[in-house]
Every structure is written in C-alpha cells, then in structure tokens.
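Entry for the shared binder. Reason: the reviewer on the internal report wants the predicted structure included alongside the sequence.
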Amino acid sequence: MQSAAKRKALVAIDLGAQSCRVSLLRWTRLQPEIEVVHRFANEPRAIGNDLRWDIHAIVEGVQTGLRRCSAGTPEGIASIAVDGWAVDYVRLDPAGNPVAPPFCYRDRRTEHAENQVHEILSPARLYSLTGIQILRINTLYQLYADKIAGGDPRLPWLNLPEYITYRLCGHRVSEYTNATHTGLVALGTHSWCQEIFNELGLSAFAAPSIVPSGSVLGPLTEELATSPGLRGARVIAAACHDTASAIAAIPAVGDDWAFISSGTWSLVGTVLDYPCVSREAQSLNFTNLGGVGGKMYFLKNVNGMWLLRQCLDEWERLGIHWSLPELVAQCVSLPAPASLIDVDDPQLLLPGHTLDKINAQLERLGQPPFVSGASLPSLVNLIFHSMAARYAEVLASIRAITGKNLKRLFIVGGGSQNALLNDLTARRTRLEIRIGSPESATIGNFAVQLAALEPSQNSSVGVSAESVARWAEPLSGALAKNRGPRAIGDQQSSN
C-alpha cells in the first residue's frame, strides 16, 4: 500500500439529499483519522411547479469544505473524490455551465414520461436490456421528460456527483456504478445501451464517457488549486453512487451476507459476481447495479428514513414538536401494530400529505387513522415495524432467487444508528445483524481513493473489489471509537 498517500491527506465529498459532507482523512503515526470538516444542509426547492436542486449552493458548499480542508493540511492533499445520490443530473450549455437548476427525482414530471417510454419500450424489454429495476425516478425517464417538455436532447448532461467532479477537474465522465443507475447501461457491460437511445430518440452524444471506479481523472483545476494544500491534488472518480461507496466499505468476506444501506432510501440486497435477470428477479423488480471492481449489487429500493422525515415535517408545521430520540424511546414500550402499511406504495414515494396517504392505507385495512400529536409515537412505531417487515420480505426473495444461505446482515449508513429499527429487523429477518458506520459512504469513498493511488494500480481498468476491501477494514474504525462493525447483543455494542 503506497506510502505517499499515507503522508498526504485525502478528501471525500458526499452529496446527500438532506445534507452534504466534506471529510478529511489524515494519518497519525500511520493510522488513519477521518474528520467531517464541513457539513451543509441540502433539500429540493419548489420553483413554480417544479421541484429542483440548488446546484449553486451545493457547489459553494463543496468549495467551502475544500478551503477548510486545505487550511488544515500542511502536508498537502493527495486526492479528492465525490459520491452522492444517483439518477439526477445537470444539463450543460456550451460553456459547461448548468442550463437550469437540476430537477429532483421526486418531481412528478416523470409520471407521464414513464407511461410514454413504456409505450415504446416495454418494462420487460427494458429489464432484459439493462437488468435495472423499473423506477420512474431513473435518469432514463427524466431524460425523456426533458424531451416531452421540448428540451434539446443533444445538450450534454452529467449526474450530480460527476458534475461536481467535472467542476473540480474539467473532465466530463460517468463513473460505472452511477452510470448503471440511470437505466441506460447495457446489461453486463460498461457501455451505454444504443437501442434505448435510438428507440426513445435520445442523444447518445449527450451522454458522458463511462469510466471504471477508481479512475484517476487528473489534477484539480488551477482556479481551485490556489492554496498550497490543494496544489497537486488529483481528482478520482471513486464509486460515485453513494450506495456503491457504502457497500464497498463493508469489510466482509464469504458469500453468506446481505446488506441494508439505510438512509433517505433503504437499499436492501447482496453482492453477486454476475447480473441476475431471472424471471423471478424481473417479476419482483430487483435491480442489478454496478459495484466496485465490476461486482453487481443485486437489490431493491425500499422507502427509507425519508418517509419518517416527511411525517415529522408535517407535524412540525402543525406546531407539534418531537425529536427522533424521544420518539424512538416512546416506541420501545409500544406493542406491535395490529396491521402494517406498504412503505413502498407509489404514493408514499411522492412528497406531501404523507399522513393522509398513510391514513388512507389504514382505512383500507379497517384501522383507525392518526389524528393528533399524541399519537405520533404510534405512527412512528407503525413505520418502523412496516419497514422491518419489508426488509424481511425483500431478503427472503433474495434467498429464493440467488440460492444464497444468508446468515449475516450488515446495516450501514445514517439509519444504522436507529437501534429500535435494527432490533425489529433482527427479529423479522432472524439474521445476525452487524452494524457498520453511519458514514459508510465516506469510508468507501476513501477506500477506493487509496486503492486507486497504489503504485501497481492501472487507472484504465479501475480498482479491484479486493484492493478496496483491504483499505475498508482499517478505515472502518477511523471515524469512531468502535473498530469496525459490531453485532447487536455484543458486549461492546452501544445499542
């Protein structure tokens, strides 16, 4: 493992749909230490009838974080990489600037676009071409929504993490793990699917070149590398999809484990060597996302902590204030609800009126609705039990489809700190639960960077899963006192 990287610091930029982080990895006596140097809020904003991201605020937040990292690193910074949520993108004008603020994937414009796409290419055909689950938030449907609205399909685009990467070094690329999430990559390849572009009248020339995870793109632009700490820093396309970074941070061996990357979404799945597009996988809408080192992440999106956040925000607007720790404490003593809701109801994927949508499900189940602030703990209890049940259902399907004998379940990401949900998941799945870092995407980001900086690394083919795993294990304890994942029930567990 190359010593130059140990002497210099590294920077990981994590873009989140609710908050973004700029983290610094430094070495003390050859031991890694990770610090979140800058954290800034992020949320979509209503602009007229559209739901969009403030891309300028995101860029400014990243630049502030880089300046702070540079000021605290006299040894200099070796490399910088970005990861973030998938599917959303920025359209570029001829000067490389955003044509408009990028749409948020929760904007309703893709409802019509999805229907029109399926009139041209059926869901079954799309799945056979890409192995990607049919979700109307996918980049595929968003690009078609642009076309319906009269936008120029020839305008270049970049997914958000790669757009920030582009601003850092001037190279317009799509990193493999993030590219697969668009629903536009040909199954089992690192290439765009020409049939989809041709049939839908989209421009393949507008799509960036796909590069493997761990590609070293080049130096930081002269405009940004003005401080001594940033001079000579290289920009790396790590695993730009934050879930891919989070899974890369799991220091697990063997073939008996699954994962939940728990955050705004819960990504429930397992790691495969090859895509799985069986009839069962298609009927249950499983996805085959690209992973680090060419692995496949066979998983399903489950509505995650965003659902709870929506409810809390609605109660806040009514003047009813509860903190999440208070709610979890109240839920611990509550019995299991009489009925469970479908957390993946398509209506619950859209923002607004979440409580009304949950009550509509309860009414269909013959259960009383939630009407007052005093019932909020019971509502949260219902959400947690329903999420855990959905996790168990998805994992049972993974067992049946892949034939894996699952024994362990690694839970990473911000939602891994929810001890009650973890416990409910353990009961429902009957798996040994291993709790990883809440900042697992950051750890995976750094692990890919370190693997890419190894002297033997060939940038043209990217990093191997094995080389990333070797770095992930020592990094797993660099952000917190605990060393690596821990099991619920272990004496050292803080849960």
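Summary line for the report: The domain at 251-435 is CATH 3.30.420.40 (Nucleotidyltransferase; domain 5).
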